[in-house]
């Protein structure tokens, strides 16, 4: 009998939709758990070179917590593309302008920095309020055992 590693095919991938409430959750822990689900590592059929992960909807992104005094000290940088065009904002300034980007930036940094990572990132939908327009996909709440399984 041969020992062969089974590799999934794109036609066999089963994607689900999950909704996560970011209310009163720590940003880093939440982002790592979301990246884990987006990547598909929670599935026994995980295949590293395919987009195996599920779609994740994050609601209440404006109510996510930052530990310690990171609200004032954590800085986010971006560049306009022009000379001297680096722009810096603190987490509190970014939260006031676009609170969804706190979670988006954190999750994006935890995904692979490749074409596959960019493809997986498109499965993330973040909303600052409690409403989302994805009711037709019938999203299920992400089970707590999945969210906290890495930290036990």
Mind explaining what this structure looks like?
The structure is a single chain. The protein is of the alpha/beta class and 152 residues long. The mean pLDDT is 92. It has one domain: Ribosomal protein L13 (Ribosomal Protein L13p, Chain: A, Alpha-Beta Complex), CATH 3.90.1180.10. A 4-stranded parallel beta sheet has the order 5-2-1-6, with helices on one face. Helix 1 crosses helix 4. Strand 3 and strand 4 form a beta hairpin.
Attribute tags:
152 residues; alpha/beta; Ribosomal Protein L13p, Chain: A; four-stranded parallel β-sheet; two-stranded antiparallel sheet; globular
In short:
With 152 residues, the protein is of the alpha/beta class.
Structural class: alpha/beta
The figure for the number of domains is 1
* Percent range for β-strand residues: 15-25%
Shape: globular
The count of DSSP E runs of length 2 or more, i.e. the number of strands, is: 6
Give me the number of helical elements: 6
Under the CATH scheme, the architecture is Alpha-Beta Complex
Q: What helical percentage do the residues reach?
A: 25-40%
CATH top level?
A: Alpha Beta
Characterize the largest beta sheet: strand count, sense, and whether it forms a barrel.
4 strands, parallel
The residue-averaged pLDDT reads: 92
Q: Could you give the order of the helices and strands?
A: EHEHEEHHHEEH
Distance between the termini: 38 Å
CATH superfamily: Ribosomal protein L13
Radius of gyration, rounded? 17 Å
CATH topology: Ribosomal Protein L13p, Chain: A
Low-pLDDT residue intervals, each spanning 5 or more residues? none
Strand order of the largest sheet: 5-2-1-6
């Amino acid at each position: 009998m041969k020992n062969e590693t089974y590799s999934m095919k794109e036609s066999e991938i089963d994607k689900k939709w999950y909704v996560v409430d970011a209310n009163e959750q720590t940003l880093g822990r939440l982002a790592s758990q979301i990246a884990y689900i987006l990547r598909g590592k929670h599935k026994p059929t995980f295949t590293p070179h395919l987009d195996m992960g599920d779609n994740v909807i994050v609601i209440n992104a404006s109510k996510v917590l930052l530990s310690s005094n990171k609200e004032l000290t954590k800085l986010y940088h971006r560049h306009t593309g022009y000379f001297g065009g680096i722009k810096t904002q603190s987490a509190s300034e970014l939260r006031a302008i676009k609170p969804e980007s706190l979670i988006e930036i954190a999750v994006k940094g935890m995904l692979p920095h490749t074409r596959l990572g960019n493809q997986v990132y498109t499965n993330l939908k973040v909303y600052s309020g409690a409403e989302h327009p994805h009711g037709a996909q019938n999203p299920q709440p992400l089970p707590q055992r999945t969210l906290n399984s890495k930290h036990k």
